[in-house]
Amino acid sequence: QVQLQESGPGLVKPSQTLSLTCTVSGDSISSADYYWVWIRQRPGRGLEWMGYIDYRGSTYYSPSLKSRLIISRDTSLNRVSLNLSSMTAADTAVYYCAREPELRAANDYWGQGTLVTVSS
Amino acid sequence: ETLMTQSPGTLSVSPGERATLSCRASQSVGVYLAWYQQKAGQAPRLLVYHASTRATDIPARFSGSGSGTEFTLTISSLQSEDFAVYYCQQYLDWPRTFGQGTKVEI
Q: A115, A120, B54, B83: which has the fewest Cβ within 10 Å?
C-alpha cells in the first residue's frame, strides 16, 4: 500500500522560504515512470498544480511559481521536498503531494495534506 | 496552459437523484481527463481517469464520458456519502490544470 505523508512547519513568516517534505512508503520514488507532484489548495479555493520531480530527478514547475519554487528528492530517504521562497499571505494553503504513476496519468495516491499559514 | 471550466458551481440535488457535472477544456485534451472527489478536510480522491475509466473501488454509479473539450461526470443515484466537491483535471499538458470545482449539496 503506497502512502504519502507531508510534513513541515505550520506557520511561516512573510518573505521566508517554506520547506516541506513528502515521505513515501510502500514504493520507491525512483521507480520507473513515476512523477511526484505538489498541489496546493488555498482556503475555500480550488486545487492549484505546482510542479513535479520525476523518477529520473527531472523537474517542471508551473510558470506562475517557477521563479520561487524548487522541488528536490532524497532517494536514500525516499522522500520529495518542496521549497517555496518569498512567501506571502497568498501562499497560505493546504499543500499536498501526490503521485502520477506514469506520463499522462491521473494522480492515484495523495498525502493527507499539510496546512501552511503565512503570518508574522 | 489549458483552462478547465466546470459547471455548475453548485448543484443542489436530493438523495437518489441523478447528478450531472460538466467540465470544459479550452483546447483539446483528448481523453486525458480525470475526476476527483473531495470531502471537507480530506485530500481529493481519484474517481475517474482517461475520461471514462473508474478508479479502483469506485462504485458503478459514478460514470464519466466525453473527449476533446467536453466532459461529463454522472452520479446515477446520489448517496449521502456523495455530497462533496468534484474537480476535473487535464493531464495531457504541463502544467496540469484543474477546474474550479462543482459542489454537490443536498
A: A120
